[in-house]
## 1
Amino acid sequence: MTTLQQTSNEVQVAKDYVNGVIQEVKKRNPNEPEFHQAIKEILDSLVPVFEKQPKYMEAGILERIVEPERQIMFRVPWVDDNGKVQVNRGFRIQFNSAIGPYKGGLRFHPSVNASIIKFLGFEQIFKNSLTGQPIGGGKGGSDFDPKGKSDAEIMRFCQSFMSELYRHIDQDTDVPAGDIGVGGREIGYLFGQYKKLRNQYQAGVLTGKGLGYGGSLARTEATGYGTVYFVNEMLKDKGLSFEGKTAVVSGSGNVAIYAIEKLTQLGATAVACSDSNGYIYDKNGIDLALVKQLKEVERKRISEYVNYHPEAEYHEGCAGIWTIPCEIALPCATQNEIDEESAKTLVSNGVIAVGEGANMPSTLEAIDVFLNNGVLFGPAKAANAGGVAVSALEMAQNSARIAWSFEEVDGKLHDIMINIYQQIKNASEEFGYPGNLVVGANIAGLLKVADAMLFHGII
Ligand code: NDP
């Protein structure tokens, strides 16, 4: 018979184990605040797993999972249009391959550093596991700023970046994709260089490719659509829907644009979106065709929107977007864009559901505000997993040398998002945190990877 005393001992042992690993990570990886934040968010919620299943502790699962299998940092020299030599830093982190080849995007943004790539790579392990697809966790990028660069400069940078990366990736080893600053154009240049250096047409070595050379229909839409499908499941569970709701979506990139498209199709109205300079507020509903034209085609600033819609407002700065009253909030720009204060404002303005389209857009304090106030909260690793899930479907099509229709891929994406929701809801209930999808996602994501690591032995 288990006594109360025994149970509290088990809880304490599990807590001490988790805290010990968190402290060790901080000691070993100093000056990496984003990585520490991701580690704390995930590890704290795993205590119930180690309490119930000490076998994972005995196998040192946590100590192993927090240490990347491989981390590559490299010089990326290139020549700008004025003939001047520029040098950037490239990163690829191959975090965990227990359930499949490393998989995760490349981010080109001046803020990129080892801490950011590590937080993204670590989160990716759990996210990829939740998709049910056979993909491990990885991430990469560079502190290169694509903004204001000519097409030729982008090409030369991508070629130089791949001139080092190609020796570390392969369709069965590590499969990068896009992320902030890396879209179809960049993937095209990266793929061309890989093909040239390897003298092999490995269609599955990168995802997010153009449709003409191995890309999947619905990949462009997948992350934004998937986030909305996920939020729809949270709403449905409470007898609610998108119909007639007001939404605020930050960002105006790939994720934001297709989140707005899908939520509009489901009957909601997006009234605001943003870029890294500021946000627009259009009470009549965002003119998505114009946003696509400005951001996808002309690569202009979102401030230009008001030149076409003078009745809309433009505000400098990003945080103000969360002061706009809404029932649905979808942060789809970048990490830590919703802090405690913004979360409190959203709550007092009546937000019902928050779906994280971006990676780690809410601070730990903001998440607490949402959870403590009964807001339906879809954490990034679940809510935005649709992108990588369809990347895995792109790999499957590449391996089979076939191409599915848009409807087929979108249908599979929809099923995957429903399945993720059910999986993490069940895990949250099974481990004693009903309604807490943050805990549910971390636990469900871990279990599959941890079991595979147990099977593989200590490696
Ligand atoms: P894009 O580069 O297409 O768009 C990013 C958007 O966010 C742009 O509007 C950009 O503005 C804005 N932004 C970038 N940095 C900042 C910042 N520091 N402050 C405020 N706004 C900023 O990227 P994605 O849409 O692909 O990615 C957005 C988020 O979604 C990221 O967190 C990414 O990791 C995550 N994600 C993306 C997936 C995908 O499939 N693309 C998959 C899963 C997650 P500006 O134009 O001024 O740079």
## 2
Amino acid sequence: MRKPLIAGNWKMFKTTAEAEAFAVEFKELYHGTDVGAAICAPFTQLLALKKAFEGTDVKLGAQNMHFEDEGAFTGEVSAGMLKEIGVDYCIIGHSERRQYFAETDETVNKKIIKAFSAGITPIMCIGEVLEERDAGKAFEVVKKQLEGGLLGISAGLAAKLVIAYEPVWAIGTGRNATPQQANEMCAFIRKLLEEMYTGEVSDEVVIQYGGSVKPANATDIMNMEEIDGALVGGASLKAKDFMEIINF
Ligand code: PGA
């Protein structure tokens, strides 16, 4: 049976010194949890965090990777390089990557395939923008992203996926989706997975909600039946807030 995952997405925040200070504070507060906890940090902070979290069950994630093993791709980092330093998860296709770095369902698909082959669990991000929700197209958009991103992925691998439903209008805006809206879309995604694969597969997939999750709304969101944890941006930058969300 799937276990919820609360993952922090630090985006382009925190120097190594700040990451280390976070780890010290966080470890003082953290005494294990029934849900999984992970921090997805900038590349240059991963090694320091790996060392800082040694001996705990806090997992480590990157925020992006390239889909080739190696090559002339200036500025890129491969899945193998991430695996070598002990990275467990990689966020793939975050809406900021889609918006600012031209990621498409096709690149998302290639990255998911590569992450799995390197032994890294992808946290696949999907979600509609405000105009799409207002136009009644949210479900259609999410379906297209899900199907495109998972093209050719076997049932065995799909069962190991983490999917983050992140409505773009709720990211960094302070305006979270209502727990009902989030639950409805997570249920829709699970149904689609059942149609694409099987009920056994859809039962295994961890489906998070992301978008303005904070201590004040974490309990309501996390208690929804179809939501298996959260991808947390801003509120994961403070050890105390992130801890409160983990202990929802
Ligand atoms: P937020 O970001 O929690 O700051 O809205 C979430 C995300 O982008 O993953």
